[in-house]
């Protein structure tokens, strides 16, 4: 930028040019300079005006400037007085007085521009606006207001300076807040403020996301909901039916139930460790299938809307060898057909699902044991679809451990990233076995361990946090997956106890009620049956982030 020494430099160049040319010398271009490069006006409350700062503009050339003008480009600064409005002779000066009047909190920056000559000049103007948030009331019971961007919080009425143009307030503990005052609602129940002055807010009410909770002695195994809003929960030693308000309507003792499924009429089916399936109506066992296994195992169960039952049994002790057997049962409990999976020495099931038409989806893999080293050798991986009569429709050479099938027969598969930053890869496979798309979700609230389609084809996903060391389990979480945008919705964290932080939490089941509320079952502890279990009903608004 040109400054005072420029005059002598320009005069010297002019003399040299005249001495080296027979032509008439060309006048040097006029130059206007401001006496300072930058001025910091400091901090000032929004709506106030600072003292004026003086800037001197000099015509640093031998040529007069016919029409000098100055202006401010940017916000927060105004010209209070100005003598640089007309003719400015060579070597002469004029003055500009600038005032800082912030209209928004945060950093205000502008430029003072002087024009009228081929070479103009500018100076940077800086100032920090300060707004104030006044929190006038809170509902008590440990509630507090937290500034999302600023990091400050209030657990009682307070007045806080804010040095940002916008700030979002959240309520803690996480719940459904009712805000009053100058708030603009944002997703997730936040209060957004544009800091163009003093803002007054109040947290009038903080309703818990959890509508009710039932504590259990151990972790429930699985959960399902009926069309009328009742809730079935499979636990160690019993099958329990609850109303939509969490009241037990009946329970029946069980011996080793491992998986629960419902048909379209809301009838419950349970498979136990031995592979026997029992159908329950009104709290009474209607029938029990006859086939069982010698070795107790976690068998898979799926039931179609019309009551056709499919059970995938693990045959063998898993030490010398293991086969899989898929058995189709009628609604009356009689065997319709069966398939044996014996493609290697060890056959492992990864999942079993059924669509609304009764078509069956099986995923698994097969291994042999190397005779010399004893190490497993991969033989096959598969994902297969069978008709309701057991005829193979198609297969792919993949082994999906985490898949779900919607009513139309499309499959969502998830490949989780087991790292603290979470994330996963999702593939969408149509009813004919063709991969329609895949999407990479680079991060998220944690590791995905559950996914399930609801009766409305909403895809619920859930899992747990993986703490920074990459080994310890943290809080549980769940959200709705938008399969159109291929993006998870807002995540709801499942704390160690209602309304307070804690962990670790293990989720074992997710379901949606007809009114859109989310039923979550699991337990407090990293391992299965470590600590108490719980059944919780979360408000439907947690899935959308609506206030």
From TrEMBL:
UniProt cross-references to InterPro entries, sorted A to Z: 6-blade_b-propeller_TolB-like, Ig-like_fold
Signal peptide: 1-19
Classification via Gene3D superfamilies: Immunoglobulins, TolB, C-terminal domain
Domain of life (superkingdom): Bacteria
Keywords, in A-Z order: Signal
Transmembrane segments: none
Protein name in UniProt: Choice-of-anchor D domain-containing protein
Native species: Corallococcus macrosporus DSM 14697
